[in-house]
Amino acid sequence: MNAHKTRLSLLASAFLLFAMVLSWSSGFIGYRYVADQGSVYLASLWRFILAAAVLLPFAWAGLRQVRRRDALHQGLLGLFAIAGYIGPIAGAIQLGMTPGTASLIANLLPLTIVVMAAAVPGQRTRGWQWLGLAVCLTGMLVASDASVEWAATDILVYSLPLLAVLSLAAATLYEKAAPGAPMPAPAALFIQVCAVIPVFAGLAFLEGGIRPIFSTGFAGGVVWLVMFSTLGGYGFYWLCLQRFSIQRISGALFLTPPVTMMWAWLQFGDPLTLKAMAGVGLILLGLPLLGIRQAYAIPAAEEVC
């Protein structure tokens, strides 16, 4: 009976992590749909407006019980984890950085989270986990190398994806160290989404206006970003953060670049190289090492499925 429960727990954990990676990857696919339709900031604005409208009926009951302090906590998470991550990456691409290069720098997120985890009690990376981190990082770099072009761009532009990484890493560690009062997931995500709407409204206005583009491509891309990348991506991310150690989540995030590449191959016919497949193999080799918990480590927040 215990063995059966253990298998179910492992399957549930694997499903949650895979759902997080798949949803996280969907953002790159969605923005590819809207890239030719107009500003990425404009698409992001209407993405979060629509997401707030979809979430409101499910969040209403929980919102009635939220205290001001908890609302501020979730709003701060939204500003750092959503606006602070998406805004700089989109800005870098619009200023001349190639998407592949921006993606490579942004995908240093797992490494940044693990290194910064020493500041969170019980989340320090130890022993074999460092080897797993090195193997996963090597695999990610190998898989991403084919899509990278180091264009002659101002050094400030290259700093924008790095700023995005630091912003989301800070939000992740903040939520892990001080999770705040429990609240229903729809209510928490609704507050986070509402917090970033003014940010993207300002960015879109500076680029030309906030009026949506009435085209099938723009509407389809925005709906895709709402359902898969916002509700799915950030929903599964915060759920996994409650259930798993930082090392386990970071290891799963290393799969985002190769999953995105395979998705683009299936959906758009983009080339899929042997180098990319070799990178995936290295990541899969390193993941079990990141899941090892040292006997002398302080117990971390692990899966409770």
From TrEMBL:
Keyword Membrane: yes
Keywords associated with the record: Membrane, Transmembrane, Transmembrane helix
Keyword Cytoplasm: no
Cellular component GO terms held in the UniProt record: membrane
Domain (EamA): residue spans on this chain: 14-143, 160-289
Subcellular location field: Membrane
Residues annotated as transmembrane: 39-63, 75-95, 101-120, 127-143, 155-174, 186-206, 218-237, 249-266, 272-292
Membrane topology summary: Multi-pass membrane protein
Family: Belongs to the EamA transporter family.
Name by which UniProt lists this protein: EamA domain-containing protein
Organism encoding this protein: Pseudomonas fluorescens
